């Protein structure tokens, strides 16, 4: 099939909702949702502040198969509260990962896929959300000792805050060109450091530093793929059979690279950041 023919048949992954994304990745007919919207597991804190909750709290949990192997998928709905993590949604993800760990202990080799579209912890549930994210991170570390945990950041919202740390703990990270990945979001950096340091409205500048292509070129993610359902699924299956780069275990190397910048480092451009993480900066 030519590139043009494939383009005509492509289907955007970014434009799908969380439930549709999970279903699209799993083998046909294997999707089974756990704790779905009809269970009415929603945040008890949002209505108290005049915010309409969502019946699944913006997190979709599904079990199924990936090329025949057991898998659990946790998909965050970026369109609800900016994909922010609260008590209920965080507990759903942590619980799903813990069940996958239990499966592995019982001889069922279950992997996990995290579809990350999140700005981090939900401010209305700050401490509860932070506790849930900590449980997610602990579960990722334990599960990856058995089977791969794949993080996928597709686009629109990106992945920031505490969940960006969770992303860094995954066995592998997969991104699209539309994706963004960073510890602090643009608005937070602008608020704390000023618009001269970081203009949250300068989209080309933001994507040049935290976008999917830049993160891949800097070696901070494992794979970079076009926004197409089939291509993303193909790359995901390939990563499941690829040894992990274990970036979380290379913390000393990353700290050394950052320390090499010194205390009065000027603002870096995209090329300088790539050189830094490729080990070429002086």
TrEMBL record:
First-tier enzyme category under EC: lyase
Enzyme Commission number, as recorded: 4.1.1.88
One annotated GO molecular function: lyase activity
Annotated Pfam families: Carboxyl_trans
InterPro entries tied to this protein: AcCoA_carboxyl_beta, ClpP/crotonase-like_dom_sf, COA_CT_N, Malonate_beta
Presence of the UniProt keyword Plastid in the record: no
Record keyword rRNA-binding present: no
CoA carboxyltransferase N-terminal domain sequence ranges: 1-255
Alphabetized UniProt keyword annotations: Lyase, Transferase
Annotated protein name in UniProt: Biotin-independent malonate decarboxylase subunit beta
Organism of origin: Pseudomonas promysalinigenes
């Amino acid at each position: 099939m030519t590139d043009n023919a494939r383009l005509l048949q492509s289907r955007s992954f970014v434009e799908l909702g969380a439930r549709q994304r999970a279903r699209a990745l799993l083998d046909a007919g294997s999707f089974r949702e756990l704790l779905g919207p009809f269970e009415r597991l929603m945040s008890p804190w949002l209505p108290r502040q005049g915010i309409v909750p969502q019946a699944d709290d913006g997190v979709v949990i599904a079990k199924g198969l990936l090329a025949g192997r057991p898998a659990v998928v946790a998909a965050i709905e970026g369109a609800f509260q900016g994909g922010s993590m609260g008590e209920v949604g965080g507990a759903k993800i942590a619980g799903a990962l813990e069940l996958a760990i239990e499966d592995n202990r019982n001889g069922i080799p279950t992997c996990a896929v995290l579809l990350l579209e999140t700005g981090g912890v939900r401010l209305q549930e700050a401490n509860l959300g932070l506790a849930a994210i900590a449980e997610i991170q602990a579960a990722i570390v334990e599960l990856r000792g058995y089977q791969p945990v794949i993080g996928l950041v597709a686009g629109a919202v990106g992945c920031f805050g505490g969940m960006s740390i969770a992303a860094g703990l995954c066995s592998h990270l997969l991104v699209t060109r539309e994706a963004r990945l960073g510890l602090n979001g643009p608005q937070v950096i602008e608020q704390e450091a000023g618009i001269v340091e970081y203009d949250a409205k300068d989209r080309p500048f933001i994507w040049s530093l935290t976008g999917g292509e830049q993160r891949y070129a800097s070696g901070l993610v494992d794979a970079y793929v076009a926004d197409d359902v089939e291509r993303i699924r193909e790359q995901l299956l390939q990563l499941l059979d690829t040894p992990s780069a274990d970036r979380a275990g290379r913390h000393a190397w990353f700290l050394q690279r950052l320390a090499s910048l010194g205390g009065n480092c000027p603002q870096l451009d995209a090329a300088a950041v790539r050189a830094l993480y490729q080990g070429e900066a002086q």
